[in-house]
Design a protein that fits this description.
The protein is α/β, with parallel strands linked by helices. The chain has helices at residues 8-13, 34-40, 46-50, 53-66, 80-84, 105-110, 112-118, 120-132, 146-155, 162-170, 172-195, 213-233, 251-257, 271-279, 290-295, 298-311, 330-341; strands at 71-73, 89-92, 96-99, 138-144, 200-205, 240-244, 262-265, 283-286, 316-317.
């Protein structure tokens, strides 16, 4: 879908600076909103919910009705991709995701071409949301980073990731091939999202902490670089935000080496780091502490003002350093958004 005057978020990722930054929050849809819980109760399970375009579109739009966000992010999950590749995936109530035995790499490779078609419902959700969303508000699609998704596929659940780390050291050929499969399938998945209305794409590399520099380059930066090259080869010119959570000092080499246009910073990111990245042509995003958002009050106001003061004179997107916590009062989200937008 072509919009003659792109939304503020898209323009910020292309280098524009505004009197106040565009704002959206990771995990803004869902867990913290009472209307989401009523909607979620209507689905048999979480995966069925994600694959129901009408329900997923409604979940995506709920925070847009409540808050003056500049962008919606499609309601989905990063583990829909391994399921589309043929690995069993389910969610245990109160415990999180579980994955069955990892199929052979040959089996996974043989499913790359068909995996995007199995995720067509996410494209339908995006199309529904884009049709309902005001033109000035952007729509974000997303996928998990290859290393993060690989860790779930290897370990069968979230957690310490020791099994995946050990395998990456002891059996690098297998892990590198799995990541290559995920790079290719993720590129096609994100391209499909772009075709169906996503104007920005974000890559969530949630498990990038505690990696030595050489492993970080091998497992995170270079796969993201290959993913960006593949996306562009598929004709996708949509701006991309990379979010290597927990990367610490390595986030700078990632930002400069991965090819993304925006870089998500977590809560530890110092002001000088973001300023250096902005000076080198990147748009920075994030860093507000979700715990501070949950707490609210004047401390929240002060931190919002500080973040805007330190980064707002160059391309910047206001966001959290991780997702909205489930027990965050909606009125605190409202307060934060109003503080940013000045409304």
């Amino acid at each position: 879908m072509t919009i003659t005057n792109p939304p503020k978020l898209v323009r910020a990722l292309r280098g524009e600076v505004f009197a106040r930054p565009p704002v959206w929050f990771m995990r803004q849809a869902g867990r913290s909103l009472p209307e989401y819980h009523k909607l979620r109760a209507q689905a048999s399970d979480f995966i069925a919910f994600c694959h129901n375009p009408a329900m997923a579109a409604e979940a995506t739009l709920q925070p847009m009705r409540r808050f003056a966000f500049d962008a919606a992010i499609v309601f989905a999950d990063i583990l829909l991709l391994p399921r589309a590749l043929g690995q069993e995936v389910w969610f245990e109530t109160g415990e999180g995701p579980r994955l069955g035995a990892l199929p052979s790499l040959d089996e996974l490779e043989g499913q790359i071409e068909g995996s995007t078609a199995r995720l067509a419902s996410i494209g339908e959700t995006l199309a529904l949301v884009r049709a309902a969303l005001e033109p000035e508000r952007a729509l974000i699609g997303f996928a998990g980073g290859p290393w993060t998704v690989a860790t779930y596929m290897i370990e069968g659940r979230g957690g310490e990731r020791q099994v995946a780390r050990r395998q990456a050291v002891e059996d690098p050929r297998t892990v590198d091939r799995l990541i290559a499969i995920l790079v290719e399938s993720t590129a096609h998945y994100l391209a499909m999202q772009s075709r169906n209305g996503a104007q920005v794409l974000q890559i969530f590399e949630s498990w990038s902490e505690n990696l030595p520099e050489d492993d970080f380059d091998r497992l995170v930066t270079r796969p993201h670089q290959r993913l960006m090259i593949r996306l562009r080869a598929l004709g996708v010119d949509t701006p991309v935000i990379g979010f290597p959570r927990g990367a610490g000092a390595l986030v700078e080499s990632y930002a400069l080496g991965s090819g993304v246009q925006g870089i998500g910073l977590d809560v530890q990111a110092p002001a000088a780091l973001g300023q250096r990245l902005q000076q080198q042509g990147l748009t920075v995003q994030g860093a507000l502490d979700p715990i501070l958002l949950r707490a609210g009050g004047e401390a929240l106001d002060r931190r919002i003002d500080t973040l805007i003061a330190q980064w707002g004179e160059r391309p910047y997107v206001f966001n959290l350093g991780h997702g909205v916590l489930p027990d965050t009062p909606p009125e605190h989200i409202e307060r934060a958004v109003r503080r940013v937008t000045g409304t």
